[in-house]
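User: Hello, can you help with two protein structures?

Assistant: Certainly.
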Amino acid sequence: MKRVKQRRRGKGKPVYRARSHRFKAEVNYKNYLDSEKSSSERGLIIDFIDDPARNCPLMLVKFKDSVSKLPAPLGLRVGDYIEQGASSKINPGNILPLVNIPEGTNIFNIERIPGDGGKMVRSAGESAKLISKDEKGIIIQLPSRKFKLFNPLCRASIGTIAGGGHKDKPFVKASKRKWAFRAKTGKWPKVRGTAMNPVDHPHGGGKGRGRKSLTVSRGAPPGAKVGSIAPRRTGRRSR
């Protein structure tokens, strides 16, 4: 059986795994009791950290009884305060339920389900916009320009995530780019099947051309399902 890269990746060995032992922290909102939902809690930003798992900086926020790690918004620095709760002000970094955020406000780190800790809009330099509120829920325009309906009790942070200019910094040399990609995916660089040897891939050998047909059936198993999958036709079109 030929060693196709999809099969090797599916076994889950370290070569194709993300380097998760280097990740600094899991980023979630701090849970609060039902009695605290209508009030506001203040937290002090004590440090910023660089996490290989993310392209945005994280901030360490010290609350009264715990320390939380959250995506850092643009414009804050060490020594500033943020607030969490329904009665918080509409300032960068503050965390509020969507129902308490005015229309037209830029937000990030949005919960999909109330209490899940924040799942959406977490990349550097990104922000969503709260468009409107109605009986069905809160309508938000995501960075992809798509509109999505959210539960009014879902929480979000005010502002835009920091680190938006990280793509402007040049890598300078190839090894820097290699480790930047491998830190998150473990799947880079990607090599074409036609550039491999016949023992490594069905498309290998033959001066860059496959030695056998590239067409496979729709029901082919994963790993064998590479190339032209159930095509209607192959070859060049006649003029």
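That covers the first. Now for the second protein you mentioned:
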Amino acid sequence: MRVLPTLPLRHLLLALAVVVVWGSNFVVITQALEHLPPLLLAALRFTFAFIPGAFLVRRPAVAWPQLLVYALLIGVGQFGLLYTAMDGGISPGIASLVVQTQVFFTIGLSMWVRGERVLRFQWVALLTAAAGIGVIFLHVDGRLTAKGLVLVLLAAFCWGSGNVIARRANPASMTAYVVWSSALAIGPLLALACAIEGPRRILDALRAADAATWAAAAWQGLGNTLFGFAVWGWLLARHSSATVMPIALLVPVVGMATAALVTGESLPPWKLLAAVLVMTGLAVNLTWPRLRAALAARGRARP
């Protein structure tokens, strides 16, 4: 019987550290949005990722136009939309949960590009997670708006699209790919910020920002991008995706827990039900092939 690979303790702790950074960041985003408009915050995120990162990693051997497409999808699409949604349209806990639907968008887009069919377990996973999103839609209110929820779903779609682009580029270092694409995200985000949020609001926000706000903005680039992607990429280079990726299921758990502890976000039964449904869908999608292989190996090992 084949023994399934596991992470050494040190590597597991590193993976959990990334999960805590990524999950708790949704609360940090709300802190930054108290003074900074969302598109400006997104531009600052990629500025803080690129400036130090450019001195640490070389530009990947990827064409600039390809990097630009990825930058627009992740910079403007994923984070521009996510921050805009979180600016009064959705709570951090729910945002941390809904944005994980990027997994299904990534799979769907990959299958569409390759012409593959959706497998039965993937349909089960998708419908289960969709039921969770449906529960959330039924409970829109003053703090959770339909607009905010749709924007986060669009952010998840852009994230999934960016994943497909990155996979086709197949960079030698995903960290370098993310860092140098960040340079191309700054300009479009600043242009949109000036056009939508206005130069006056931007200047007023920069003047009003305190040390905590700047720390929250810097954490978007330094903690989530440089630390998070570097460590996660390092782990994926040493272990199979089937071993590492299921740990990412803890990101929305951390996100909802920190939102409840720090911001006092309530966890009524409907929200817990939605979380269970979405998380179950994600878990089935990520772990079922591995579990099925383990069960098959155990069956063959029996006399």
